[in-house]
From TrEMBL:
The keyword Mitochondrion does not apply. It comes from marine metagenome. Keywords: Repeat, TPR repeat. This is Uncharacterized protein. Pfam families: TPR_19, TPR_6. SUPFAM superfamilies: TPR-like. InterPro entries: CellSynth/LPSAsmb/PSIAsmb (IPR051012), TPR-like_helical_dom_sf (IPR011990), TPR_rpt (IPR019734).
Length: 287
């Protein structure tokens, strides 16, 4: 039965006050006000969503699922804009309870009914990352999108980039690896995986393997060659360092950085005359 105009107005006013209280992190008042909304309109999608959200965040996923199911069902009828977030939140709560099949169904419904959701989350993450205080929220936005489509290249890439910004190198490497699985061979991805592995645990062998994979795809990749040269230098493979850089110098005769890098290694190995010649070559090409 539809609400009377007076009840609808009262529910709307209480929901507005609850939203303001949420913005001020007054969660006790949020609960009270949304509870009053539900006493008037038990199916109110926004009130059910936020009470479900709070229950989940406070470690009560069972209660959260109850609210979120009501929110999702009601949102399809009266607040379509809220439906995808309700379904994603519901899926997350179901996962917490070990009800993976139901969670997957919830996420699949979002992908089917709201195919623009993942791009919306990617856009939201891009906006949030502009504020250094919202990087974690940007990561969360990507995560929600990936729950719906775990093979979305843009979300995988953005998540990896954001994790790098937070110096969460091991997690970033995992997301670069996931991206590698869903895209065409890309040397930049292997380079990023290698650098992340190196920064996380100084795993030089794993890093070297990724740099070599990058160069298998593009033998003239400057950054991968430089990164591999550093690893080879650490291992004492001095001749291979010079060989790799000389080959790159021939492949990229206009690149100033290549002869300059080569010169630095030649100087390190005591080959000063060759180093001077390479320095001059590089400086002549530098802008």
């Amino acid at each position: 039965m539809p609400l009377s105009k007076a009840d609808q107005a009262r529910a709307d006013e209480l929901a507005k006050r609850a939203s303001a209280a949420f913005a001020e992190s007054n969660l006790a008042e949020v609960r009270q006000l949304y509870g009053e909304v539900l006493s008037i309109d038990p199916g109110h999608p926004e009130a059910n969503y936020w009470l479900g959200y709070l229950e989940c965040r406070e470690g009560n996923p069972e209660a959260g699922v109850s609210y979120l199911k009501t929110s999702s069902d009601s949102a399809f009828e009266t607040a379509t804009w809220l439906a995808p977030d309700s379904l994603v939140e519901l899926g997350m709560a179901l996962n917490t309870l070990g009800r993976e099949a139901e969670a997957a169904e919830s996420f699949a419904t979002v992908l089917e009914r709201f195919p623009a959701y993942t791009e919306g989350q990617l856009k939201l993450a891009g906006e949030m990352e502009l504020d250094e205080h919202l990087v974690e929220s940007a990561i969360d936005a990507c995560h929600r999108g990936l729950l719906v489509d775990g093979r979305h290249p843009g979300l995988l890439k953005k998540t990896a980039e954001l994790l790098e910004r937070e110096a969460r190198w091991d997690e970033a490497a995992d997301f670069w690896s996931l991206l590698r699985e869903v895209t065409s061979p890309n040397p930049d991805i292997h380079l990023r995986i290698g650098l992340c592995r190196l920064r996380h645990s100084d795993n030089r062998q794993a890093a070297r393997a990724e740099f070599e994979k990058a160069l298998e795809i593009n033998p003239d990749h400057e950054a991968a060659t430089f990164a591999l040269a550093e690893r080879l230098d650490d291992e004492g493979a001095f001749d291979e360092v010079i060989s790799r850089l000389e080959r790159l110098a021939k492949a990229k005769p206009d690149a100033a950085r290549v002869p300059l890098t080569l010169a630095n290694f030649l100087r390190k190995y005591g080959r000063l005359e060759e180093a001077v010649a390479r320095w001059r070559s590089g400086l002549a090409k530098a802008p």
